[in-house]
Amino acid sequence: MKKQMIIFGIAAALVLSGCGNGNGSNGEKVEENMGGMDHGSHSSSGEVPETLEAANNPLYPVGSQALMTSDHMAGMNGAEATIVGAYATTVYAVSYTPASGGERVTNHKWVIHEEIKNRSNDPYKPGAEVVLEADHMNGMKDAIAIIDTAEQTTVYMVDYVPTTGGEKVTNHKWVTESELKAKK
Questions:
Q1: What is the dihedral of CA 83, 38, 20, 23, to 10 degrees?
Q2: In this structure, what DSSP letter does residue 52 have?
Q3: 149: alpha, beta or left? (left if phi > 0; alpha if psi -120 to 50)
Q4: CATH number (domain holding residue 95)
Q5: Which pLDDT tens digit goes with each residue over 3-34?
Q6: β-strands 53-54, 180-182: how paired?
Q7: How many domains would you assign to the chain?
Q8: Is residue 100 within 8 Å of 67, Cβ to Cβ?
Q9: Can you list the pairs that 20-29 forms with residues at least 24 positions away whose Cβ atoms lie under 8 Å?
Q10: Alpha carbon of 78 to those of 61, 68, 146, 163, 164: distances in Å?
Q11: Could you tell me if 157 and 141 are in contact, meaning their C-beta atoms sit under 8 angstroms apart?
Q12: Domain enclosing residue 108, as ranges
């Protein structure tokens, strides 16, 4: 009986591990549904594009703390974030195939206007094709991307400790204002 339970447990684990592989129906990586699978480095140097302007009077000032409600990385949702930078820009969700090769990533959140190579002065509209200058995920720099969504907002660079445990993430790029809420 004990041997049968072990075999059943192993079989169940194998079946479950085949579910939810993060691929859409067409085999593309779906970032928003990846359950926070790590496909790049969470921390960055904190460098921002020279032309990126600090937000005037942001809802969450530099040095303040807020709770994150986003889930595009493992351990973000519910984590306490310390605001490292607040910037006024256009933020994009993009789909791209990594320049270094690999599976297509869809709906990556977020790339800002200043992280697009040879960018126009005006914000891009959904459907536009661009070349990414952003380098905060593996294979992102120089990748050809399609703009999925575009929104003029304040974006934040944050430090946080993932709710799933692990090391502190520093200078994470980017969290939008709508993905933060005041601490109570």
A1: 100
A2: P
A3: beta
A4: 2.30.30.1210
A5: 443 333 333 333 333 333 333 333 333 343 33
A6: unpaired
A7: 1
A8: no
A9: 23/103, 24/106, 27/103, 28/95, 28/103, 28/104, 28/105, 28/106, 29/103, 29/104, 29/105, 29/106
A10: 19, 5, 30, 7, 10
A11: no
A12: 2-182
- Enumerate residues 6+ apart whose C-beta is below 8 A from 68: 76, 77, 78, 79, 80, 81, 158, 160, 175, 179, 180
Each residue's pLDDT tens digit, 96-141: 999 999 999 999 999 999 999 999 999 999 999 999 999 888 899 9
Which pLDDT does position 73 carry in this prediction?
86
